[in-house]
Hints:
Blueprint: H1 2-17, E1 44-49, H2 64-73, E2 78-80, E3 86-88, E4 96-97, E5 103-107, H3 122-133, H4 151-155, E6 166-168, E7 173-177, H5 185-188, H6 199-205, E8 222-225, E9 233-238, E10 252-257, H7 261-269, E11 275-277, H8 281-285, E12 292-305, H9 316-324, H10 328-335, E13 340-342, H11 361-365, H12 373-387, E14 392-399, H13 402-418, E15 422-429, H14 431-439, E16 445-450, H15 457-461, H16 477-489, H17 494-510, E17 515-526, E18 530-531, E19 534-535, E20 542-543, E21 548-549
Parallel strand pairs: 1-10, 14-15, 14-16
Antiparallel strand pairs: 2-3, 4-5, 5-7, 6-7, 8-9, 9-10, 11-17, 12-16, 12-17, 13-17, 18-21, 19-20
Amino acid sequence: MKKMKRILALAVSSVLALGTMSACTGTGTTGNETGGGSSDAPKVLNWFAAGEVTTMDSGKTYDVISQEQVTYQNDTLYLIDSSNKAVPSLARELPKISDDGLTATLTIRDDAKYSNGDPITAADIVYAARRVVDPATGSQSAENLNFIKNAQDIVDGKLAPEELGIKATSDYDLEITLSAPSAFLNTSLSTTLLSPVNQKFVEEKGDQYALTADNLLSSGPYILKGWNGTDISWKYEKNPNFWDAKDIYFDTINIQVIKEVATGVNLYEAGTLDGVAVTGDYVSLYRDKPDLVTVQTLRMTNLEMGISSNPLLQNLNLRKALLFAVDRDELAKSILNGDGSPAYGVVPNGIATNPDNNKSINDDFGKLVYTDIPEAQRLFAEALKELGKDSITLRLVTSDSDESIKVGQYLQSAYETNLPGLKIDLANVPASVRFDEMMSFQFDLALGGWTGEYDPASYVKQFEASFPHNHAQWKSQEITDLIHSLENTDGVDYPLRWKHVKEGNQYLIDNAVVVPLVQAASSALVNPKLKGYVTHVLNTPIDVTRAHFE
């Protein structure tokens, strides 16, 4: 694999070039703002974002970057702690569940306020939820509230938003009627889609709501400043009206978009940044240094296929050839330097365990995706014959971040080497452009990822016919029936729910609807003086909203 050798050679040279770098000791600009300066000096954290934000609207976020930014400025009913369990935040306690598992009641704090001083009430949660599922809002995450009764019918335009199974029974009490009993309800209720939204403020701002920092209202620890919708840097200022403001340490968190890892590492080493994401060679370089923080995530990195837009990809043998021609171990170890693990299937390991025997996803579902070059070549030759082609050219679109470019180059090399006659044209574009192409369903191949909600069924659901992020536009009655069972008829029969998720995972691989690559980990260099941040599999891998400097 000549191209692969060139990529690896460049990777090695990058490591050698960095060999003289030392771990950041936290003595840069932030040192003067923490323990080293006056106690009255502003407490400032200089942090990072992996790319531009597509939306700051809590009801519309659908990509990982935007969801992370929304958490700074929006309170949620529950937070996810370091043990990946839901703990009360805006809600005073965990929900009480009825005997039939279909009704949840909870009480929110009576001392919670927005950044403008207006009180937060249960009605604001109801408005937020109705707004998400209202087709007029155009939320691409609306289906994530399908655990609430009537959500899907409202999204489909069959019912009015007021029919959603959520109501305020008093100023601070909520009653939620569920579509089906859920073993993951507490964590599902931690979503920012249910962050309170002030109806009066939204209506005053009209179509300008959430397009700039001035057109947002905070319910969380920080207030967004200096963001106009396209900026690559902005900041958050402490929200004095936040109910837990006394436990929020930083006065300001500055955010800088960092796409190139080398640039970020240089800024970190200079003390300009207190944290930056690292991938590939940098993970190895900092492996034994205290700065490196690696967190396993539930994000599946996948090669997605425009099955509806490219007739060639409607050929099962071609899709299976793409599935078997990739060496996921090499990708995880040589390209990502262990910053992730080879995918076993569509559903990530660690999200849940078999309710009967406590086996993990990987142990119970088995390894369904693997490398088989001879089989891939046989399938590709069969596909060429069926399609009447001597060769095939496919365009692969990736984001323009360092890691995405490297993975794209790896896939290009692997496919062109292992499947003679296949040419891959690479297109590295801004993340927003990649999102637009995938959501328009007009692409050949795209390097994508999926972080579902807290129910493992969400990873199967992304390929259900009506799901908005079904980028392949795959239509299968089998998947539709499985999702219907999971959401409507399985009830509290959790072993049956597990069986249906397992069947969905198997179906998607058998039909090569997607090519799972790796289950991602998230690595970052973090100022060793920073303490109190939370790492978890669910939600933002490194949550610094309640962190502090030692």
